[in-house]
Amino acid sequence: MRILVVEDNTLIGMGLQAALISSGFDVVWVKDGESGLECIANQSFHALVLDLGLPGISGMDVLRTLRSQGNLLPALILTAREATEDKVQAFNQGADDFVSKTTDIEELVARLKALIRRSGSDGKFILEDLVMDVETRMVTHKGTALSLSKREFEILKVLISHAGLIVTRKQIEEAVYGEERQRDSNSIEVHIHNLRHKMVGLNLLTIRGVGYSLTASP
Fold first, then answer.
1. Which candidate, 34, 29, 26, places its Cα nearest to that of 6?
2. What is the pLDDT of residues 192-209, one digit of tens each?
3. Where are the beta strands (DSSP E) in 61-155?
4. In angstroms, how far is the first alpha carbon of the chain from the final one?
5. β-bridge partners, 5
6. How far apart (Å, rounded) are the C-alpha atoms in residues 134 and 138?
7. Long-range contacts of 143-150 (CB under 8 A, 24+ apart)
8. Between the chain's N and C termini, which has fewer beta carbons within 10 Å?
9. How far apart are CA 83 and CA 106, in angstroms?
10. What's the CA gap between 164 and 127, in Å, rounded?
11. How far is the C-alpha of 21 from the C-alpha of 105, rounded, in Å?
């Protein structure tokens, strides 16, 4: 798994890079926000470890820029700032986790791996007991393999990759049909109906007039 570390402190950056490499990650380390954005624009990463107090473009601005571009790269904030206000602001800007620089490296690695698993950037999506492996196209719920049609799989992929958010009907249609012109106006509803019966215990909500949302159990 490939990680981008954006940290301006040389000592911390070197230590973090070495620790992550020893834990099996492929690590790219840069020291400022501009370089970080350039790396993300030109390379592929599974996750981002981001300091907030960067020279030039701040870590918060890096995060804001990524999310405004629709980039959902999993972002773990690693900072000396521990005020609640900073955490709230980071999460509001799209951070996925927030860790103090005093955190043990073992915990940081564990949280980073969990973040990557949840996000699906390692080829898997996990929502409670629902697991989707994109590469093998295997989906299990509570340990039981689900038999899904191609259309059902594509719809579920869109929903689970946006878990907790509203996915519009147009987004689903584009993911399922692509450029196909022949579309059954009722097929989305039929596939959603089938998915609900195959995933009892998960909330697959219909947002009338808008789309759908897949969330964890209440």
1. 29
2. 999 999 888 788 999 988
3. 75-79, 97-100, 124-127, 130-133, 138-141, 144-145
4. 32
5. 29, 49
6. 7
7. 146/198, 146/199, 147/198, 148/195, 148/198, 149/191, 149/194
8. C
9. 23
10. 10
11. 12
- Residue count of the chain, please give it: 218
**CA angle centred on 113, ends 162 and 23, rounded to 5°:** 155
Per-residue pLDDT reduced to its tens digit, 9-67:
999 999 999 999 988 888 999 999 999 999 988 887 888 999 988 989 999 999 989 88
Question: In this structure, what token pair is assigned to residue 111?
Answer: 């949280």
Interatomic CA distance for residues 218 and 109, integer angstroms: 29
57: tokens are 């473009």
Give the amino acid at 215: T
